[in-house]
Amino acid sequence: MLRVRFHGRGGQGVKVASRVLGTAAFFEGYHAQDFPLYGAERRGAPITAFTRISHVPILERGVISEPDIIIILDETILNDPLANPLSRLKEGGVVFINTTHSPADAKEKYKIAEQVIALDITKISLEILGLPVLSTLAGGVASRIAGLREDSLKKAVEKEASEILTDKELVAKNREAALSCFYAIQPIEVKTSEAVFLGSPVANVPFEPAMISSPAINTTGNTPLRRTGNWRVFKPVWNYESCTRCMTCVARCPDGCIAVNEDGFPFTDYDNCKGCLICVEECPVGAIEKVREVHA
Ligand code: SF4
Ligand code: SF4
Fold first, then answer.
1. Which UniProt keywords apply (predicted)?
2. Is 70 exposed, middle or buried (0-12, 13-18, 19+ CB in 10 A)?
3. Contact (CB, 8 A) for 248 and 289
4. I want to staple 137 with a disulfide (CB 3.0 to 4.6 A). Which of 96, 108, 181, 275 is the partner?
5. Shortest CA distance to 144 belongs to which of 176, 111, 190, 112?
6. Is 245 touching ligand 2 by the criterion CB < 6 Å?
């Protein structure tokens, strides 16, 4: 059996990525099981999803604690000790990271002993879809690492994307983006392990600590400690030569994280700016530029 765990943030498409992989495996004749696990938070909060793939019926249930493959859609998750995405990766397993770092740099930076595959799928998504939505792209990466075929992935993306999108052109772009990621990854060997029979053909969920599903809400007064701006795709950058100091951006920021410096110009607290870019949209003179964050 192959056990795959996906980590990302709410809104990036973690659940659909796990479904694309499961559906591709199913189209190829395997038994497949996929499901997400949401915490009690919001868009941008750490999300986990799981896919099991097997030649035999899957009787195992519950979260995947010891994955063979870990797919990380958002590199900033690696800096979050509460999300702990690398936990209990099997020996001989594989970690994929959506990053601008090379595999060697990412391996060293995050101290990963097992094999690391790195690719900037956010860039591919922005180029093909025009949005940082990573679901089908991460599904493409995972399908390649799992050793599935191109035609199975194509059919899976069409099925899964058509269930959430009515625009046929966007479905076709998702197929293109998924295949682009699929072929950007070299085929590799992944060590699989035996299916586990837990004693009952009915759902038999092993106990898992609450920290896995609600990692950030078990202490009081922790909100000021959370840096809510650590998962931006773009950040606003001010050009003071154009700025008229009208203060529209200060008033419109939904996070209230734009302050004014001693010269009367606005600046943001990047630890908490979530990159919504409302300030960029609202500035009447175009004095704020959106700039891609390239490294976590
Ligand atoms: S990008 Fe959004 S959160 Fe950040 S400063 Fe602009 S309005 Fe505020
Ligand atoms: S909205 Fe634009 S012009 Fe007005 S203060 Fe902000 S950056 Fe300056």
1. Iron, Iron-sulfur, Metal-binding, Oxidoreductase
2. buried
3. no
4. 181
5. 190
6. yes
Give me the residue label for tokens 């269930």.
163
Query: Which atom of ligand 2 lies nearest, measured to the CA of 252?
Result: 1
Amino acid, single-letter form, for residue 296:
A
What pLDDT does residue 272 have? Answer: 87
| Structure confidence at residue 11 (pLDDT) | 85
102-131 per-position pLDDT tens digit = 999 999 999 998 899 999 999 999 999 998
Ligand 2 proximity of 24 Cβ (cutoff 6 Å): no
pTM value?
A: 0.83
Q: Give 65's pLDDT tier (boundaries 50, 70, 90).
A: confident
CA of 244 to the centre of ligand 2 (A): 6
What the chain holds in terms of domains, given with CATH numbers, is 2-212 (3.40.920.10), 228-292 (3.30.70.20)
Which residue, judged by its Cα, is nearest atom 3 of ligand 2? 243
Separation between Cα atoms, residue 93 and residue 61, nearest integer Å: 20
154: Cα within 13 Å, side-chain hemisphere: 6
